[in-house]
Amino acid sequence: MSKLFTPMEFNHVQLKNRIVMSPMCMYSCMDQDGKITPFHETHYISRAVGQAGLVMTEATAVLPEGRISHEDLGIWGDEHIKGLKQLNEHIHSYGSKTGIQLAHAGRKAQLDSDIYAPSALAFNESSKTPIEMTAEDVKHTVDAFKEAARRAKEADFDIIEIHGAHGYLINQFLSPLTNKREDKYGGEKGNRYRFLSQVIEAIQTVWDGPLFVRISTDEYSENGNTMDDIIYFAKQMKQQGIDLIDCSSGGVVPASIKPYPGYQVKRCETIKQEASISTGAVGLITSGLQAEEILQNDRADLVFIGRALLRNPYWPKKAADELGYTLGAPKQYERGWR
């Protein structure tokens, strides 16, 4: 039996297989209002037709100033619920579960408005310098994650993922490279974790479903978080009830990364083993055989597929064929599925 196509349950939500559409920004809200467009519907629903077990939306901003760009999806207002709810209804009709990645870009926001970060440090020479967040700004942002989670529940999402990776706001608090604060949110790793801890606690007051967190497991800088730091964060998240850690890397500071197939899997495996928590592997996983090896050897619990699913919405069918597994099809596609 293929493990890739074995169901897995998180907090009473069962995924029909271990294939996750990785969150990938589409920058497609042309009206700059953060609302779902026909493109988003086609983009996400087609991956459910293709039989991904979990379809996760791109980074969805909890505040307008938390967008990476003006074209990002948003969930900062109740006006966003209707479009997301309709999207979920369509995805669910094909047997896939839905996830939303709640995000705040922090200093990496490329907006006309003011931007905010734990410390007033620009990402690079061409980037805007952010405003250092006050204690009130921190509280306001934590509350924004909470309200976004409430809206996600009203929109019928099955899973929430908190975006703590790629150098965005939560990652900026976690990393000593970007967090130079001298208050209770800065300094030693326990303080740097405090913001994420408060976001998790706030979300859990309104959300009782599965909760994932994406983190950058390598910051590609000798002065960044070490694997020991990452394991510490992972253990803290487990204690707080996080169901899975989605293991990506990079983005905190400018870095030259040379990716290769499965280049992030080893760190994912280490976190799974040392923190005793479920993990998701991501990063140039392109074939069914590769995905199956990761799962069969207990290196991760889910595989997050990005670029391969952009190239082929029916990647699960391709993977099933590689593994000799008979994957069911929507009835409309059965003639061409064999």
Which key terms come to mind for this protein?
single chain; alpha/beta; TIM Barrel; 8-stranded parallel β-barrel; two-stranded antiparallel sheet; 12 helices; 12 strands; globular
Task: Lay out the secondary structure.
Layout: E1 8-10, E2 13-15, E3 19-21, H1 38-49, E4 54-61, H2 81-92, E5 97-103, E6 116-117, E7 131-132, H3 135-154, E8 159-164, H4 169-174, H5 189-192, H6 194-204, E9 211-216, H7 227-239, E10 244-248, H8 265-275, E11 278-282, H9 288-296, E12 302-305, H10 307-311, H11 315-323, H12 334-337
Parallel strand pairs: 3-4, 3-12, 4-5, 5-8, 6-7, 8-9, 9-10, 10-11, 11-12
Antiparallel strand pairs: 1-2
Helix pairs in contact: 1-2, 3-6, 7-8
Which parts are unreliable, with pLDDT below 50 for 5 consecutive residues or more? Answer: none
Let me know the largest β-sheet: 8 strands, parallel, barrel
CATH superfamily: Aldolase class I
DSSP, total strands: 12
Report the span from N to C terminus.
19 Å
| Number of alpha- plus pi-helical segments | 12
- Shape field: globular
CATH architecture type: Alpha-Beta Barrel
Beta strand %: 15-25%
CATH class: Alpha Beta
Q: Give me the secondary-structure category.
A: alpha/beta
| Quaternary status | single chain
Number of domains: 1
Rg over CA atoms, rounded to whole Å, is 19 Å
Tell me the strand order in the biggest sheet.
Answer: 3-4-5-8-9-10-11-12
Query: How would you state the average pLDDT, rounded?
Result: 97
CATH topology: TIM Barrel
Taken in chain order, the helices and strands follow as EEEHEHEEEHEHHHEHEHEHEHHH
Share in helix: 25-40%
